[in-house]
Amino acid sequence: MADPENVDSPSLEAVNDGAGEESHVQKEVESKEAKIKEEKEQDSSQVELNVSSNAEDVATPENDKKEKKTKGAKPKVKLSIKEEIVAPPVQEPQEVDPNALPENVFPLFMTSKTQEIYNCKCDEDVTQENPFKFIPKVDILEDMKMRAAVCDFHPFKQQIIDYPGEDILIMYDYEFKYGQNFLLAMTEEAKEILLKPPDDDKGEGDAQSEVEEDASIYLYVPPEPKEWTSQGSEIEIEEAQIKQTRKQLKVSVKRVRRAFGAQVTFEDRNVGDVKDGLVDCHTYEDTNFIISRVEMDKGIQAIELNTTQGTQTNWTYPRTAASQTCPREYTAKEQDQSYNSEQCQKFIVNVASDFHRSLQQNEIMNVFHNDWQHLGDGDDTFGSKADNYLKEYQSFTDLQFSKDKVITCIQWHPIIKGIVATSVAERLSFDERVDHAARVIMTPSLILIWSFTDPIHPQLILEAPDDIYSFAFNPNNPNHIAGGAFNGQIVMWDITSHADRLRQQRGSNRNKKRTVLPGFEDPNVLKTPIIRYCAVSSIDHSHRASVTDIQWLPDHIQVNKMGVPQENVTGFATQLMSAATDNVVLFWDVKPSKIHQIHDDKSKQPMGVPDTFKHLDLTWKPLLRVTLSKSEPGGDHAPTKFSIQERQGDRMSALIKTDYKEQDSTKTMQGGFHKPSTAGKERILQSVKTYIFVGTEDGEVVYVDWMPQKDQDSGKIQTPKPAFYHTIHDGPIVSMERSPFFKDVLLSVGGWTFSLWKEGVSSGPILMPCACNVKLSCGMWSPTRPGVFFISKVDGTIDVWDLLDKTHEATLTQSVSPTAITVMSPYQVTQKQQLIAVGDNSGTLHILEIPWSLRQPTPNEVNAVSNYFEREVKRRAFVEERWNFREKEKRELESEHKKKAGGLAAAMAPLTDDEIEMKNRQEYDLYLAEEASFLRMLGIIQEEEQII
User: Fold this and answer.
1) Is residue 75's pLDDT more than 70?
2) Where is this region: Disordered (predicted)?
3) Alpha-carbon distance 86 to 80, whole Å?
4) Buried b vs exposed e over 76-111: b needs ≥16 C-beta within 10 Å?
5) Model confidence, pTM
6) Distance (Å, rounded) from C-alpha 885 to C-alpha 879?
7) Closest to 415 measured CA to CA, from 505, 461, 464, 480
8) Could you tell me which of 313, 461, 535, 697 has the fewest CB atoms within 10 Å of its CB?
């Protein structure tokens, strides 16, 4: 090895120039070190490295020339790095984090619901002392099939399927050390690590032995100080410091020698005014602050005024007093003398005329009439502001059947006053129903019929196969009730045998007319009877989703299988309509078919169940199916509520007697129809509009014809496409109600908004206020005032809107329930009393009394509201006209731009979508004009008729 002393020490400039060589040397050292590690058989005590200590080793052109000239003359230094001087830097072994998760162990968060399923509740089934729990792999796979992505094990689905064992280990993380409440072992090795963690002492010993073993190879090299290199930070620090940058002001005060020790007086002055800088400030009188004294003469007379007051209240003072008298009793002889005395006979003769007059007055007028209660009923003005609120009249709830349930539908009895029915359902989502399927099946689904005479116990209880979300009384025979179940079936009840129970009061005096022998009384006479349903529809032909709306058709019309409305000669409502979110609206007929009339079914009904609808049980199929398909591809409409124009009691369409003739397309769009291939014997009602408004789950309002027509493309008889639909609401539509005064005006409620629609206006709603800050749940019209309707919200409040008062906000907002309101139903009891039934999310039925100002219509209110609707229709037409004008203006501007572009390229440019639509519309209008001209020539249509 060469002597280091003979090597010329490189200069400072050479060292600086060889900075790049240091990195090269460092890389060479690291490569040598890797080779030393691989060759463990060699002695590691001494490592020889050839390091060039001359700066001329840097690969530069000048150094290359020098190397060629003095090849072999440059000495090389061979340093011997022993244990005392140690060579390469030591790579310390990476420390293993003791808190790191073992391999194939993952943190898992299990909800309380999942803990109940696998019996591993925190701090009950698993604790800090006993944190382990084995779960069968089969149970986890079954749970993932049932709940899919809701299952907490779903993120590890593939690892669980590939797991070879039968039981999977989970460990309760009491301290949330890894961010979740459980740990999941996905391999057998991970399971053994969790069950048998490595000993800490042993681990420390192994680590120490490894350190000692590494120490024999790697030796500590103390760091060498390096020259400090500035990176510019001291400039930023220096700029951040506050330093004085401007010169200080110097003030020099001078005084002549003779003035030393004299009194000093300072004053403000302007140096430029006086040469010597001396200014005298003399006092002067300021006229702005002169206060003059004014003499005033005042007179005061302090004499009390004399007042005279009077009161009818007698002044009393408390005192202790008592008196005791004996009753005056007459003997029989004294009584006869008093009756026969001349004084008594004279008294009777004097008062006889007054007594007869009082008896006559009692026969003519009611002496018990409360005049104060009915004071002001005959006035034609609004009531005062004090009584302008909804008053709590009564409430109904049952601790056994309706507590903690949601009221889904409310219906008033159409004949008997004071009877109201409600349907209750479980307050569960679809996933919760699946999870608690066993409990839901065992819980009865009921309809409770209440009477105002007994607010504690329901009068009747109707049992259903599943939760009822909508039901309705038959308008002609209220003893027949139809309901829509959660599973999509239509259910029928017959309460004829219990109808007397609704007409009489509940109590001990109820059965006094009955002659019952002592000891043979019925102990169950006061218990509420539970009535089983008579029939349910066929599950294969019913709805595929829960029935959300059901209505009876009016008793003056009926629909055949082709959807043609005909006259109902029986005068009884026998058909009903139902809607569900399975994209269809179904028509049902409760009359027995001809097959059932010929072949009477001899099967027996269960005990206590009438056989009124025995022919429908489990075989009932819909008469007509209306499929709501969208005009463009992309799915169908999912109806939740619907409304038809015909109403019960309005027989104008049945009284119009006209012969049937072929209808044109104009009347078809307005609710007419084309003559089907086969017509029944009943008279066809031409004035009945077959178009219905349907509210969907996506917040759409659809206007569609229920009568099927022949498709021009496929040739099949199917429901036509909707005439129009608008996506207005931002949530499922929960109410679609027609005004009781205007058949063509509807109220739709959904999401956070509501809107008013008018039949015949297809461009959109005629009124739509701004969205509410709370989600809406129901909407109902007032039965007596045309411009008033009620909107309920999920925060338990009701908004009362009066269109004659305000159209931008509610006239009255009142809180009714602490929970969400689900459904409402107003009812006109008498001319002087109007009630509204409100059902909430806790199973309570609130009966509220509507004040006089909200039930008594103003003079000519119907005309005022009608004029308001007409103005809104004109405004809507003007808005639509402006839209068309703007679109036309836009197309003209685009065409002008294309003309300016000029050339063949502009002429060959493809048409836009608006231009194509406009061109097709013009061609269609031309076709309609030619068709109308041809039909006039044939005499089919008159001159005043047009085809649109």
Assistant:
1) no
2) 1-75
3) 9
4) ebebebeeeeebbeeeeeeeeeeeeebeebbebebe
5) 0.55
6) 10
7) 480
8) 313
| Phi (first) and psi of residue 25, to 5 degrees | -65, -40
Give the CA angle between residues 71, 72, 76 to the nearest 5°.
120
What does the alpha-carbon distance between residue 258 and residue 760 come to, in Å, rounded to a whole number?
112
Nearest by Cα to 533 from 571, 495, 583: 495
DSSP 5: G
Q: What are phi and psi of 470, to 5 degrees?
A: -165, 135
Residue written as token pair 């006092």? 283
Q: Which residue has the higher pLDDT, 852 or 237?
A: 852
Whether residue 435 has pLDDT greater than 70: yes
Higher-scoring residue by pLDDT: 567, 508: 567
CA distance 826 to 944: 45
The token pair that represents 657 in the structure block: 């007697």
Indicate the helix (H) or strand (E) that contains 424.
strand 419-425
Phi (first) and psi of residue 845, to 5 degrees: -105, 115
Nearest-angstrom CA–CA distance, 219 and 85: 10
Kindly give the pairing relationship between strand 812-815 and strand 797-802: antiparallel
What rounded mean pLDDT belongs to the chain?
Answer: 77
pLDDT band at 581 (very low <50, low <70, confident <90, very high): very high
860 backbone φψ class: left, alpha, beta (φ>0; ψ -120 to 50): left
Residue 35 is predicted with a pLDDT of: 60
Of 639, 643, 654, the closest CA to residue 699 belongs to 639
Averaged pLDDT for residues 577-593: 92
Half-sphere exposure of 453 (CA within 13 A, CB side): 13
Smallest CA-to-CA distance from 17 within 66, 75, 60 is with: 60
- The amino acid sitting at 511 is N
Nearest to 653 by CA among 674, 684, 682, 678: 684
pLDDT at 48 over 60: no
In the structure encoding, which two tokens stand for residue 767, read together?
């009124």
Rounded to 10 degrees, the C-alpha dihedral 347/348/351/355 comes to: 160
